[in-house]
Specification:
- This protein has about 130 residues and is an alpha+beta fold.
- The protein has one domain: Dimeric alpha+beta barrel (Alpha-Beta Plaits, 2-Layer Sandwich).
- It is built from 3 helices and 6 strands, in the order E-H-E-E-E-E-H-E-H.
- The strands form 2 sheets. Strands 2-5-1-6 form a 4-stranded antiparallel sheet, with helices on one face.
- Strand 3 and strand 4 form a beta hairpin.
- The two termini are about 25 Å apart.
- Pfam families: YCII.
- This is YciI family protein.
- InterPro entries: Dimeric_a/b-barrel (IPR011008), YCII (IPR005545).
- Belongs to the YciI family.
């Protein structure tokens, strides 16, 4: 099963501490040995650095330039990974968030975990 983890928090211009990045790298290596496959991950630039929203509302498409002052939190990073079960995805995500608690005191946020559907999933859903 593939999952996307979206890390949300208050927007800040600070980079995560290098110790946190190193700890996440170690967690990813540990996960690889246990069958956790990291497909892609990355951080997102602040909304003031080219953030744009394209919204469809009442039949009209609107483009809104960042920064987004009305947002209490924004997606600041993401990861796409493959694990056998949702339970394992939750376990690795909890460990990821625990690293934030440990290495970035005062940071508050959440990680939203969502299963990714690919073309084969849509074909199965459309089958009679």
């Amino acid at each position: 099963m593939r999952f996307m983890a979206m890390v949300k928090g208050c927007e800040t211009n600070r980079m995560p501490p290098p110790e946190l990045i190193a700890a996440i790298d170690r967690l990813t290596e540990e996960g690889a040995k246990a069958g956790f496959v990291m497909i892609e991950s990355g951080g997102l630039a602040p909304t003031a650095k080219g953030g744009v929203r394209v919204r469809l509302d009442k039949g009209q498409v609107e483009v809104i330039d960042g920064p987004f002052s009305e947002a209490k939190e924004v997606v600041g990073g993401y990861a796409i990974y493959e694990v056998p079960t949702l339970e394992e995805a939750v376990m690795w995500t909890r460990r990821f968030m625990d690293l934030h608690r440990q290495y970035w005191p005062g940071w508050n946020g959440e990680t939203e975990l969502r299963q990714i559907f690919g073309p084969e999933d849509f074909a199965q859903m459309m089958a009679p």
